[in-house]
Design brief:
Layout lengths: L13 H15 L6 H17 L10 H7 L2 H13 L6 H9 L4 H6 L7 H14 L5 H9 L5 H13 L5 H10 L4 H8 L6 H13 L3 H11 L4 H9 L5 H13 L14 H9 L1
Length: about 280
């Protein structure tokens, strides 16, 4: 049996099309509205544009066209927009989020070697869909030494947002390697209280150079046992910016800290003082 030819998809710059639609509206209604009133009307006009039949979409409205496509077609169209350097329409992204059959295609875009922009769109659309399927893949990227830092940051944020759903997997990854530990630790701080997590976070705080960041993580975790541990480092020789973050963390956890140390030689302290 011969495989059918793939349906030809319409790669359209809807930003440009909407711009043309706006120009026509403004021409037809010249002098009726102020510039501010036109700006206020943009959301309603965009809805009108999105739902109006258009020859650019073979007589369908832009929204109806995208809604008519299956998940595989929507994913193929997303890829075509990026390959052809045509702005990805919000309406296309909305259709991908709403589609019940787009997840497999989006997951395929998370494989190594995918164009970075396409990868980013897939991550964010899967996020909007509320999908938990990519989390295992995201953890793999975070702990891989070969992962670009921009990608690590992007997927790290996704793990942090959904940390309780993969808590044990985050813990396992954290014990296996120190690569990407900052993101994994931020994710652990979003999980329910657990002695094992507390021990990992406080041990890292005591040894890291990123003391301000880890003070913030401990404050976020919310275990007041960390107060005495943070105090172990705030008494040391630290920068004023770090001191402020540690003091905040202590207070956020219900503790108190005051001292009269002199930060007059610290550049950040002098800059803040001179700006007042």
């Amino acid at each position: 049996m011969t495989k059918g030819k793939e349906k030809e998809l319409l790669v359209k710059d809807t930003d440009e099309l909407f711009g043309n639609f706006m120009k026509e509206e403004m021409k037809r209604n010249a002098g009726k509205f102020t510039e501010e009133e036109w700006e206020d009307r943009i959301p309603a006009l965009y809805e009108q544009f999105a739902n109006a039949p258009s020859p650019e979409f073979n007589g369908s409205s832009p929204r109806a066209y995208y809604a008519s496509l299956g998940g595989e077609e929507l994913c193929r169209l997303l890829s075509s927009h990026i390959d052809e350097d045509v702005a990805v329409p919000d309406l296309l992204c909305d259709a991908l989020v709403a589609s019940t059959t787009s997840e497999d295609g989006l997951m395929a875009f998370l494989e190594e070697g995918t164009d970075e922009e396409l990868f980013s769109y897939a991550v964010n659309i899967l996020r909007e869909k509320g999908s938990l399927r990519p989390l295992d893949k995201y953890i793999e990227y975070v702990v891989s030494e070969d992962t670009d830092e921009n990608v690590r940051e992007l997927v790290g944020e996704m793990i942090i947002e959904n940390a309780p759903a993969v808590e044990d997997k985050i813990l396992s990854a954290r014990k296996a390697t120190h690569v990407g530990s900052r993101y994994l630790d931020e994710a652990l701080a979003a999980c329910p209280p657990r002695d094992e997590i507390f021990e990992i976070l406080t041990a890292e705080f005591l040894s890291t150079k990123e003391i301000a960041a880890y003070a913030h993580i401990l404050a976020k975790y919310g275990d007041d046992r960390a107060v005495d541990i943070i105090k172990q480092r705030i008494v040391g020789k630290i920068r004023y910016s770090d001191y402020i973050e540690l003091k905040y963390a202590i207070e956020a956890l219900g503790g108190e800290w005051t001292d009269d140390r002199d930060f007059s030689t610290d550049a950040t302290f002098r800059k803040i003082k001179n700006s007042k």
